[in-house]
Amino acid sequence: MAKSNGPFGFSFGTAVPAPVPAPALFTMDRKEEPEGGTKKKDPVVSLNDKLGSKEVPSALNNKKETIKAFSFPRPSPGLESPWRVLKWTEEQRTTLMKNISSYKPSCTEAARVLLLGPVGSGKSSFISSVQSVFNGRVTNRAMVGSFSTSFTKKLQFYKIRSLRGQQPDGLVLCDTMGLGDGGMTGPTLHDVLSVVQGHVPEGHVFSPVQPVNLSQTLGYRKRPSLEEKIHCVAFVLDAVKMSSYHGSLSSSFQQLREHISELGIHQVALLTHVDLVCPETAQDVTNVYKSRVVQAAIDRAAALLGMSTSYIVPVKNYSSELDVDHNTDVLLLNAVDHILQYADLYFLDNSPPPDCETP
Fold first, then answer.
1. Angle (CA) 328 331 337, round 5°
2. How far is CA 175 from each of CA 12, 112, 178, 220, 336, rounded to the nearest angstrom?
3. 115, 171 contact by CB (below 8 A)
4. Mind listing the pLDDT tens digit for each residue in 323-342?
5. d(CA 65, CA 3)
6. pTM of the predicted model as reported, rounded to 2 decimal places
7. 131: which of 51, 141, 183, 209 fits an S-S bond (Cβ 3.0–4.6 Å)?
8. Residue 77 falls within a domain, yes or no?
9. Range(s) of the domain holding residue 291
10. CATH of the domain at 142
């Protein structure tokens, strides 16, 4: 294997004569059996094999971390006062739709937002749900699966259109393979950061034996433009699985966040499937910010990601519905508006040169 000249174990711009499978971003080492014991197990194990462990090895060092078990609080008989305020009026829905439809970043055609999250967290469903809001009916624009492995295998860009037949708005949602997709099949840290930096072309299929590099990745961009880079990263977590996520996943997320932050990219988070953990929210989505269960899940997500709860918003994706719902639309649109606020910070931090004209 070529000698590494970067922090991720791969050489940019050089061929890899004998590709060796790169470990997935969310994998952990198995404990070795004592000498004279049973046969040693495979040194790489998927995240799903370790779920539920109370004591796990850290992804960043050899120390063991004792993980405090997380459980949802019991739903209260009477809903409490809102811990966040969101207007659920038709006027608010219209205002959010206009703001998103008219959004145009400076010096580039659209803000590119990369969705990152474990398999089944609802990344593709979120993209389809957002487009459904603007279509006025539920459509699955980003194909969604219900498998234990990632249905999305390649990098795909979805230009959100507010009205059919018109030019797309200034927002592109980027979907990619689920993190921690079993053993050796999830994307590596190197590949994720290559996407963020704009080196990876749309349609690229991720492979554990073929890391992204100049010589072997078709369409590799050596010097990506501002338009080709990612301008905001949105982590996507499943509220139903919050009690299963543990410290090793947290270490991996925080390592990823550290590298993305060094690139000047702001990050937010979406907590999906909140209706499945809170009966009151399932009955009426306007109860989402009154729910102690949802609030506890957001607190847990904040600890897992190492970010403030103010960066995290709950969403309810369309799944079994055939028609859109006013209140679900408001929650989804509020999440998109939240994302665009942080995408704007990227453009503010990376001010265009004086001769750069707004499209």
1. 140
2. 24, 11, 9, 18, 15
3. no
4. 999 999 999 999 999 999 99
5. 32
6. 0.77
7. 141
8. no
9. 107-349
10. 3.40.50.300
Alpha carbon distance 248, 345 (integer Å): 30
Q: What is the DSSP letter of 5?
A: -
Residue 19 has pLDDT above 80, yes or no: no
User: In the chain, how many domains are there?
Assistant: 1
Determine the Cα–Cα distance for residues 157 and 203; give it in Å rounded to an integer: 9
The pLDDT of residue 23: 54
pLDDT for 83 equals: 93
Biggest alpha carbon distance in the chain? 71
Cα angle at 76 between 75 and 78, to 5 degrees? 135
State residue 350's pLDDT score: 84
Is the residue at 265 inside a domain? yes
Q: What is the pLDDT of residues 104-162, one digit of tens each?
A: 998 889 999 999 998 889 999 999 999 999 999 998 865 555 444 445 678 999 999 87
193: tokens are: 């950061």
- For the stretch 8-15, contacts whose Cβ atoms lie closer than 8 Å and that sit 24 or more positions apart, written own/partner, are 8/188, 8/189, 8/190, 8/193, 9/190, 10/190, 10/211, 10/212, 10/213, 11/213, 12/213, 12/214, 13/213, 13/214, 13/215, 13/222, 14/213, 14/214, 14/215, 15/213, 15/215, 15/216
Whether 41 is in a domain gets the answer no
- Decide if 319 is inside a domain: yes
* Burial of 155 from C-beta contacts in 10 A (0-12 / 13-18 / 19+): buried
Q: Which residue has the higher pLDDT, 215 or 286?
A: 286
Q: What crossing angle do the helices spanning 90-101 and 326-349 adopt, rounded to 10°? A: 40
| Torsion angle in degrees (nearest 10) through CA of 99, 115, 120, 101 | 20
CB 202 within 8 A of CB 195: no
188: helix, coil or strand?
A: coil
Kindly state the tokens that stand for 77. Answer: 């008989």
